[in-house]
Write a structure and sequence with these properties.
Layout lengths: L1 H6 L4 H25 L2 H38 L5 H24 L1 H8 L5 H25 L3 H24 L5 H18 L1 H7 L8 H5 L2 H25 L4 H14 L1 H23 L2 H38 L7 H26 L3 H19 L5 H27 L23
Subcellular location: Cell membrane
Main location: membrane
GO cellular component, one term: plasma membrane
Length: 434
């Protein structure tokens, strides 16, 4: 057992524990809310949830990754991390201000089209985005400094608070979506406050960091990250936009997506070691090792996806009714489409890591752009609203996989060492699926 533990990347156990608690919190959060809220209120909460994690993870996860990468590089060179934290925080604050202003300016329209006129949920949306901005920026610092116990603690506190707060709301009989949404604001902010000591110690020191090292790959990485979240989350939002009066399908679809995404949570714990391994093989020009690691990763996610698909298709309709009190509107066929889409999405995650290892940021972004366009086209095809968003999710993911596979096939002939390998950190924060 000790030998097995020594094979794990640094911080895997600490981060894995926090990630497991955070993942469990998603199921508890939606489960309690599903039993306490009526169909229209749960539908509004589902749309809020989808927007928060589409925009929040899409914008701020790349900042976490780039901060972690640069902090790790400076740590190796004996340089202080403060300048990186300062620049990363400024970028996160600018993005938050931009999107916050846009959301507030369109508050009435957003409330009318997405939240049945409940403007309070618009303010919850802004607050939840602020919480994610602060959390991901500080996690980048903790990851880059390899302070994985602190990193895992932040994840764990976030998850534990969500579970505790939602349980308290359920026991108190609260039936307002506002308070279930506020949990997404309160939990990440408190988790950051509780893990501030190493962040405060890192502030200051050294000369200001030039913008170029942080911005060089951030734009394309943000495009990829944002569109990846769009592909996996937009279905719930599209249900509300396509069929505003269908209060049952949006809530049921989010419950189903959370269920079929269980393999994504498992894969998140494996991603920490995948990119560094692929990048090292690519930099050394070892095509055989690169292909071997890529094949093994694809085999693992295929097995995860296949097992998840079997159980989701077989038990999905019953599980969402039992766990989330979701309306009985989805069949095994719906779960089969969602499961296939999730398997393809897992392949896209693996192939995306391989592309990044070859410095193919543009190819990855282009693949997500084309996949998102394909998703949009399929969504417009006349079918039932559930079929439209489910098949669109599957087709969009398939197109992304095809684009990435084509790039990797064309680049396979480049077996020499990479001329300008990018520093890679073994950040555990390469995937976050709520």
């Amino acid at each position: 057992m000790k030998r097995l533990l020594n094979l794990l990347p640094p911080g895997t156990i600490a981060v894995g524990g926090g990630l497991a608690l955070l993942g469990a919190a998603s199921y508890v959060h939606l489960g309690v809310a599903g039993h306490q809220l009526n169909a229209s209120d749960y539908s509004s909460l589902s749309v809020l949830w989808s927007i928060v994690f589409t925009v929040g993870l899409g914008l701020f996860m790349p900042i976490e990754q780039e901060v972690a990468r640069l902090v790790a590089t400076r740590r190796t060179d004996g340089l202080p991390p403060g300048p990186v934290l300062a620049r990363g925080g400024m970028i996160a604050a600018a993005l938050l201000a931009l999107f916050g202003i846009l959301i507030v300016a369109a508050a009435d329209l957003i409330a009318e089209r997405l939240f049945y006129g409940d403007t309070a949920l618009v303010w919850v949306l802004v607050g939840a985005l602020a919480g994610l901005a602060v959390a991901h920026t500080t996690r980048g610092l903790l990851s880059g400094l390899q302070l994985f116990p602190w990193y895992g603690t932040q994840l764990g506190i976030d998850g534990a608070l969500r579970i505790g707060l939602v349980a308290a709301l359920g026991l108190a009989g609260v039936t307002s979506p506002f308070w279930y949404g506020m949990v997404l604001v309160f939990a990440p902010v408190v988790s950051v406050v509780c893990t501030l000591p190493p962040v405060l110690r890192a502030i200051g020191g050294g000369l200001p960091l030039p913008w170029a090292p942080l911005l060089r790959g951030l734009g394309l990485l943000t495009v990829s990250s944002l569109l990846a979240q769009v592909v996996v989350n937009i279905g719930v939002i599209n249900v509300r936009l396509l069929e505003p009066d269908d209060v049952a399908t949006a809530g049921a679809l989010l419950s189903a997506l959370v269920l079929v995404r269980i393999p994504l949570f498992v894969f998140a714990s494996l991603q920490a070691s995948l990119l560094p391994g692929l990048a090292a093989s690519a930099a050394a020009g070892d095509q055989s090792a690169f292909n071997s690691l890529l094949r093994r990763a694809l085999m693992i996610v295929t097995a995860l996806g296949a097992v998840g698909s079997f159980f989701a298709t077989l038990l999905g309709p019953w599980l969402v009714r039992t766990l989330f009190d979701a309306p009985d509107v989805l069949t095994r066929v719906d779960f089969a489409w969602l499961s296939v889409g999730t398997l393809l999405y897992l392949w896209a995650m693996v192939l995306g890591q391989a592309i990044l290892a070859r410095n193919g940021h543009r190819a990855q972004a282009l693949s997500w752009v084309v996949g998102t366009v394909a998703l949009g086209v399929v969504t417009l095809v006349p079918m039932s609203v559930a079929q439209r968003v489910e098949i669109a999710y599957t087709v969009g993911s398939l197109v992304v996989v095809a684009g990435m596979a084509l790039f990797l096939r064309r680049s396979a002939g480049t077996t020499g060492p990479t001329t300008t390998p990018q520093p890679v950190t073994s950040s555990p924060a390469t995937g976050d699926y709520r």
